[in-house]
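pinned: reference chain
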Amino acid sequence: MKIQKVCLFGKAFCREFKAFALQGNVFDLAVGIIIGTAFSNVVKSLVEDIVTPPFGFLLGGVDFANLTIKMRNFIYTDQPPVVIRYGKFIQEILYLLIMALVLFFLIKGINKIHEIASKRLLEEGKKKVKELSDEAKILTEIRDILAKQNPMIEEVML
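pinned: its structure tokens
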């Protein structure tokens, strides 16, 4: 019962929210987020499992995931040392760079497609402007006929 009163109180709000939520843009955004998350996991695996192991091999068998700095705990000596995992940080930076590169090429491709489509629409628009409609052609013929019949009209029209 209270829910109906709230919706009656904010009926315009409920209507607006329903229209917003059911728009195609919201669903497209949700699909994009899901695909982006899956792609993110793929790139993360690429960095952790494929890209960094060869670098570690070239650097003398270093495992980037286990690169750490252990700092002794001076204040609480009975506690374990503080561990800084800089190898994991390096992996995350590589992950960020690959994602940024992929997004750069994706945006560049979308902009190129948009540019091509815009040029095509502009060219089609120019063709349509050059081609006069039937009405315009008839009016032009009438104007020319009237101009031939009366030279005074020709001066006024042109």
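why pinned: The first strand starts at residue 69 and ends at 71. The chain has a mean pLDDT of 81.
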